[in-house]
Write a structure and sequence with these properties.
Strand order of the largest sheet: 1-5-4
Order of helices and strands: HHHHHHHHHHHHHHHHHHHEHHEEEEH
Number of strands: 5
Helix content: 55-70%
Radius of gyration: 28 Å
Largest sheet: 3 strands, antiparallel
């Protein structure tokens, strides 16, 4: 259960307060804030522009005075982003001290505002957050989760699913950023190192895990998902808190957060274990947020790849890449989400490319054509055993791994790459074991029977070494494959090789197991495209001919 003592108490830091009188208000928020930053004026004397003030009052009213979920969603999805792009593209939103008086100093609203404020600093402000802002953002998350989890009954708060997902996603991202930050010691001042040394519980991995598990427990989300998967009513097991959308969705998103966090820590078994209640092959009632859906499949696919379950990884990546292809137009008006999805899309194609080199198999035609267009050159290099290409692709597509423990502050060197290098070493060892298999596969595909001695001569190795290599080929082509159970960890051993063989009296007998290409799906897809094009052409209206142009 949730334990309050896991969090440190709120402290106060320098660097946030300003100290002069306001002299020149222009009415343009960008110029005013620039003026503030240059001269260090106090938040209390800063005059908030009317555009920003009216937006904040509307948001406050919709959240705290007259709760209106649709209005909150509109203001969050559109208003906040438009004002950010217009006035605060690369600069912070107004300080909390400036905002508090116009929202009646409402403590809950100010926690939510500061969550947006710090998230914006992490995402858009070029210099990034200072160490004090990292600490302050952590304290703000403590306040938010204390409010939600320590209440005697469900809190009266409604937020859109997208905002709730962003809270969990950003919480883990900021933990990830802080872990990287504290591991880069070589250029840190003595004051910064001392602050890190004296505050070991800030952004501590146990605190982060504790929050996520507490949200899962409070919402009874695992029990709800199990009942939902079996066709029952989730509310029957949801409990007082779990029936509320706020707790239900935070619980679900926390499961995805735990998947991500365990993946970043390199604990792949536990990453899949936390998702046992989620049936990915059934349309999920709780996952209607595209960013959550794509993040889930990215990490599940990556975990399968690192567990050497290539067939499951390929299936996972293919499904989500097909989903992105079909729904990409939905995200084009949301620049930040669009950029994030594009990046994850490229990462997943790269991971899929790696998996198909290590474990060739048939995939969806449209995903295959995209791979051919953009990644064919990299695929050819990897098929030839180019280790640098494997490493470059892995480096681009893998998540930013973390160490769960603080570095040694007495030895001021950079430790942030150590978790990545460990996972890279595990990956490259696996690839090196596969490199020999490509040559064996290419020879086996040319014959139906082949003497061991002849193949040994081709491979320039002894017969005993060849037998070992052939056994390795058999082993590497046999994967645990998910067989339809509720847990993603379960599966059956299956051979996924294009060729199968056995050895009898010094002779290799080879059978081609490759399924003939199915053209039906391709033609059906082209027919649908043609019908859609035909409908669009019929909708076109051709205006009258211009004067001066005469028909023949």
């Amino acid at each position: 259960m949730y334990e309050e003592e896991e969090f440190v108490e709120r402290g106060s830091f320098g660097g946030f307060e300003y100290g002069h009188d306001y002299e020149s208000h222009t009415g343009d928020p960008r110029l005013d804030l620039e003026y503030e930053r240059e001269r260090g004026y106090s938040g209390s004397s800063y005059i908030l522009p009317e555009t920003i003030k009216s937006f904040l009052v509307e948001l406050y009213t919709a959240i705290r005075v007259e709760p209106d979920l649709y209005q909150i969603q509109s203001l969050y999805d559109n208003g906040f982003n438009k004002l950010t792009d217009r006035f605060f593209k690369n600069s912070p939103w107004p300080n909390a001290d400036v905002v508090a008086p116009i929202v009646d100093d409402d403590g809950i609203f100010m926690i939510l505002y500061k969550e947006l404020y710090f998230r914006h600093i992490y995402a858009r402000v070029q210099s990034g957050p200072s160490i004090e802002q990292m600490f302050e953002s952590y304290y703000n998350y403590c306040d938010l989760f204390n409010y939600i989890l320590n209440a005697d009954g469900p809190v009266e708060l409604q937020l859109p699913n997208q905002w709730l997902w962003n809270v969990i996603d950003e919480f883990i991202y900021q933990f990830q950023s802080f872990s990287q930050f504290r591991s880069k010691l070589s250029k840190k001042s003595d004051v910064e190192v001392q602050m890190l040394r004296e505050n070991p519980k800030i952004w501590n991995v146990h605190s982060v895990l504790n929050v996520l598990h507490s949200l899962v427990d409070k919402s009874n989300i695992n029990q709800q998902l199990e009942v939902y998967s079996s066709g029952g009513d989730p509310d029957s097991v949801a409990g007082e808190f779990g029936r509320q959308s706020l707790y239900k969705m935070l619980g679900y998103f926390s499961l995805i957060g735990l998947l991500r966090l365990h993946s970043l820590l390199g604990d792949y078994y536990q990453a899949l274990k936390v998702l046992e209640s989620i049936d990915f092959n059934k349309k999920n009632l709780y996952s209607r947020v595209p960013g959550c859906q794509i993040t889930t499949y990215y990490y599940v696919g990556f975990v399968y790849m690192m567990m050497r379950r290539y067939q499951d990884a390929i299936r996972t990546f293919s499904n989500i890449l097909l989903y992105i292809q079909r729904t990409k137009s939905m995200f084009q008006n949301k620049a930040q989400l669009y950029d994030q999805i594009n990046k994850q899309n490229d990462q997943m194609y790269t991971l899929l490319n790696i998996c198909l080199v290590l474990h060739p198999m048939r995939i969806d035609e449209s995903v295959h054509s995209q791979l051919q267009d953009k990644y064919q050159e990299k695929k050819l290099k990897m098929q030839k055993g180019d280790m640098s290409e494997f490493i470059n692709s892995f480096s681009f597509a893998c998540p930013k791994f973390l160490s769960p423990v603080p570095p040694n502050y007495d030895n001021p060197v950079n430790y942030h790459k150590e978790p990545y290098l460990l996972q890279q070493r595990v990956f490259t060892e696996e690839v090196e074991q596969h490199n020999l298999l490509g040559n064996i596969r290419s020879y086996l595909k040319l014959y139906t029977t082949l003497p061991l001695s002849k193949l040994a001569a081709f491979m320039d190795m002894s017969i005993d070494e060849l037998k070992t290599a052939l056994m390795g080929f058999k082993h590497k082509m046999k994967n645990v494959v998910w067989a339809g159970s509720s847990s993603g960890l379960d599966g059956e051993f299956q051979s996924g090789s294009e060729v199968d063989f056995y050895i009898d009296n010094g002779m290799i007998h080879i059978a081609d197991t490759q399924v003939a290409r199915r053209y039906g799906d391709f033609f059906v897809r082209q027919i649908h495209k043609f019908e859609e094009l035909n409908k669009n052409l019929k909708k076109l209206t051709i205006g009258p001919l211009k004067s001066g142009i005469h028909q023949a």
